[in-house]
Specification:
The protein has about 80 residues and is mainly alpha-helical. It contains four helices and two strands. The chain is about 40% helix and about 5% strand. A hairpin with an 8-residue loop joins strand 1 and strand 2. It comes from Desulfosarcina ovata subsp. sediminis.
Length: about 80
């Protein structure tokens, strides 16, 4: 694996550290059902994803950075009273 080519492409090294996750691993990371991820994609909601093959049954993958950002966006900090 050559990492020296990644210097000019921000975020590329992160992909070597965290390879794309399949639906099952992504759902587990987020604490939701696989069907929930599928529903979110259909509704154009939820975390960003990568479609690896064409068609309605194309292979889907999630980047760890996108899942982590989505979790952070869902974070609720209660107001102090």
């Amino acid at each position: 694996m050559q990492l020296e080519n990644c210097e000019n492409q921000p975020g590329q090294i992160a992909h070597h550290l965290h390879p794309p996750l399949n639906e099952t691993a992504a759902a587990e990371y987020l604490g939701v059902a696989v069907q929930t991820l599928r529903n979110w994609r259909h509704q154009r909601r939820g975390p960003a994803y990568v479609k690896l093959s064409p068609g309605p049954r194309g292979r889907i993958a999630y980047l760890f950075e996108d899942l982590s950002a989505y979790r952070q966006d869902c974070r609720v900090i209660p107001a102090e009273r």
